[in-house]
Amino acid sequence: MCRSSLKILMLTQFLDPTRGGGESMFYQIASELSKRGHKISIIKHKIIGKEYTYNNNNIKVVEVYPAIEHKGRLPASFLQNFLYIINCVRSGLKIIKSEKVHVIHANNYSPVFAGWLISKLTHRPLVVTIHDVASLHGVDFWKKWMRQFGGLSYLKSVIGYIAELLTIRLAKNIHTVSTTSKNDILKLFPWKRKHNLCVIPNGISLEYYDIPDIDEIRYEDEIAFIGRLVFYKNLDVVLKAVSIVPRNNFKLTVLGNGPMRNHWEKLAIEYGVSKKVNFRGYVSHGEKLKVLRRVSALVLPSIFEGFGIVILEAWAFKKPVIVADVSPLNEIVEHGRDGFVADPYNPEEWAKYIKMLLEDRDLARKIGENGCRKLIDQYTVEKTVNKFEQLYKEVVK
User: Fold this and answer.
1) 160-173 pLDDT, tens per residue?
2) CATH number of the CATH domain containing 364
3) Core-most of 83, 166, 281, 287, by most CB within 10 Å?
4) Per-residue DSSP letter, 93
């Protein structure tokens, strides 16, 4: 079955053009699909203190209760997730009846359960997005996740572990963002090889990035980290590296918030670099772009990632990246060409690459330009949506 225009129901808990990973991916994909004439209906959480509008006739956004705060992470409350699923199913059934939806696309975790129920009740095909697979690391990962928020509930850790496994098990059409995540799924569920398991890398829409002319891009004595301050972001190694770099006139700007902020602020004091490190918390998209316009490099020391969209954002500004030598980061970044790959537990190695890029601006520019070319060749939202259109039409047949 091939249609020039599809009607797609997308389920996600959060939706934002530039904030977060999965929520910004869904927003940009929906926006690009709508430009191509597809009719998109999106169900999301109602966010306290934020009115949501979308100036696009091809996109309809429905907000469901409970209303929650956007704290930079999915809601941990069982009740909030349960109510979201129930209200999402109710709204989804109404939308499918009125809009004659062809395919359902659910973001990971709670939207998957809602999508599975709607799919079973309406016989519409379901595509599930799995960004990463934390449960490959067992219940211990979930214990660490819970502990950083100030409490350790073994029951919640087990629930998180089982819930993620169920979202993968229930899905017959799985989209994931990297070969690493695909392989992780197959390690847990080898029989998923029989199902539709495809890799479509993330892509960004350059219209959300006010890219300056080449002569306006600067490479100052500054590096940046951008992301949630959670344990697996592994900022410790960069803070230690900053203490090793033999330069007094540079700084590390940290954009983002999270439960590890207090710990890392204290660690910066312990390492004697508190005056070099500026923890700015969550900033607006516009302010983030100002930082990217001027820094000499972006650092991403994460030991666990599904993709790493911030790499693409740095490349959009022709900035080199230094990433941890873990999959899939070391698959996206080509060492020495569009960035550097460093041992996530070796601060001396991070210090070496930071020093190199701060001292050689021509090298930083050259590597950043290589990254920008890769972004345009492989990682734009237009290329991502080309593949989604193909996937949707395959499952609708």
Assistant:
1) 888 889 999 999 99
2) 3.40.50.2000
3) 83
4) H
